Amino acid sequence: MEKLTVNKLTKKYGQKVILDNLSFQLAPAKIYGLLGRNGAGKSTLLNLITNRVLSTSGEIKIGSHNINDDDHELGKMYLMSEVDMYTKRTTIKRMMELADEAYEHFDFKNAEQMLTDFKLDQNEIFTNLSTGQRTAAKLVVALNVNADYILLDEPVLGLDANHRELFYKELIKAFQNKPRTFVLSTHLIEEIQQLVEHVIIINDHQIIEDADVESLLKKAYAISGPAKDVDTYTDGLNVLYTETMGSIKTTYVFDGLDEQRVIPDRVKIDHYDLQHLFIYLTNGDEQHD
Amino acid sequence: MQFHFDESSPLYQQIASQLEEMIFTGGFDEGDKVPSTTQLSQQLHINPATVLKGMNQLVDKGLIEKRRGLGMFVMKGAQQKIMEQRKEDFYNDYVKTLLLEAHKLGITKQHLQDLIERGEQDGKINS
């Protein structure tokens, strides 16, 4: 498996910029989270990577090969898209066969087990299914398809809590049975925080973070105490958000804490989670105290 | 087997310390097989790389060892090792702090011994 490289990728619809000069890499055999608010351009990015939409400029390569219209390279990637592309009367069985025809070596055995777990019958017609069932059926295909890069756009849309748990377990199973790269584009950040190793955050059409979860969380500090002490301590640090309750202030910092800084007696330092980090990083003008 | 995670420290460290606790309390005895990275990550929905990093901390400490093709096992003397480490931590975290605070309050060594006696007596009454 080779790295997937996105270089200076831009997408415009007319004058409207959807993605502005994105560069990043996806490494082989790693689970990624692709995070961004509604309309940030996540789906467009996934469609660009799989050549379903053409870029305005920039390039996408696997190893040293440009993926543009190269069926061999495109065959290394599979996109489970948010849009349903199956025609009427397509059964789940047919969906699996299509994946087998396009990518070969589809894992029918594991797929059938997953269908049973999701309580789906392979003779059911896709368009007759509920939103959650459609997602489950698409996941059964996506996790058993033979590709090096599996991109999952909204993989838990409409799934109930039990089936989301099942998906997370199946994802890890699929990853361990055959290490591949998975990209999860989802809004349920809390649920995937432990699952993904690395996240890419898109905001205002650009990448604002591209880092391992562990290293991001290491810099996420919530500092609380008497307002004056907190302000003194956080002076000069990268502050994302603050909230005040009575005389107690909490300041959410995204920065390294200098060992030299003296922690005032009544100031408490905690960490906060990825979901909050995401909210504070992408809130923009909506921040109010 | 019950794990509980929070935001206090990196996830791999929490995995390592909770497994260590299970070894220390005998949940996994010496020579026992500990759950594999595969089992743990599927059960807890944690990225396999994170679980592996946590497990490797215990390997580095000499608490568990990998037996080729068989899995991970608790090493002989693991409990003793944890015990020694904890005694050292006890000295650093409690005894040193205790002496420092006692000194600030002007509590003498004799007085401190009396207080320990008193604490023991109280403990007896309560238990």
Properties at a glance:
heterodimer; A: alpha/beta; Rossmann fold; Alpha-Beta Plaits; 2 domains; 6-stranded mixed β-sheet; 4-stranded antiparallel β-sheet; 10 helices; 14 strands; B: Arc Repressor Mutant, subunit A
List the helices and strands and how they pair.
The complex is a heterodimer of chains A (289) and B (127).
Chain A: E1 4-13, E2 16-26, E3 31-36, H1 42-49, E4 57-62, E5 65-66, H2 71-74, E6 77-80, H3 92-103, H4 108-117, H5 131-142, E7 149-153, H6 161-177, E8 181-185, H7 189-192, E9 198-203, E10 206-212, H8 213-218, E11 220-226, H9 227-234, E12 239-245, E13 248-254, E14 268-271, H10 274-282
Parallel strand pairs in A: 3-8, 3-9, 6-7, 7-8
Antiparallel strand pairs in A: 1-2, 1-4, 4-5, 9-10, 11-13, 11-14, 12-13
Chain B: H1 11-24, E1 33-34, H2 37-44, H3 48-60, E2 64-67, E3 71-74, H4 78-104, H5 109-126
Antiparallel strand pairs in B: 1-3, 2-3
Helix pairs in contact in B: 1-3, 2-3
How would you describe the overall organization of this protein?
- The complex is a heterodimer of chains A (289) and B (127).
- Chain A is of the alpha/beta class and 289 residues long.
- Helices cover 31% and strands 30% of the residues of chain A.
- Chain A is built from 10 helices and 14 strands.
- Chain A has helices spanning 42-49, 71-74, 92-103, 108-117, 131-142, 161-177, 189-192, 213-218, 227-234, 274-282, and strands spanning 4-13, 16-26, 31-36, 57-62, 65-66, 77-80, 149-153, 181-185, 198-203, 206-212, 220-226, 239-245, 248-254, 268-271.
- A 6-stranded mixed sheet of chain A has the order 6-7-8-3-9-10, with helices on both faces. Chain A has a 4-stranded antiparallel sheet with strand order 2-1-4-5, covered by helices on one side. In chain A, strands 12-13-11-14 form a 4-stranded antiparallel sheet.
- In chain A, helix 6 links the parallel strand 7 and strand 8 (181-185).
- Chain A is globular, with a radius of gyration of 22 Å.
- With 127 residues, chain B is mainly α.
- Chain B has 2 domains: 11-76, Winged helix-like DNA-binding domain superfamily/Winged helix DNA-binding domain (Arc Repressor Mutant, subunit A); 79-126, no CATH class.
- The longest helix of chain B has 27 residues, at 78-104.
- The chains are: A alpha/beta (289), B mainly alpha (127).
- The A-B interface holds A 30-31, 165, 168-169, 172-173, 175-176, 191, 194-197, 214, 217-218, 270-273 and B 5, 7-12, 38, 41-50.
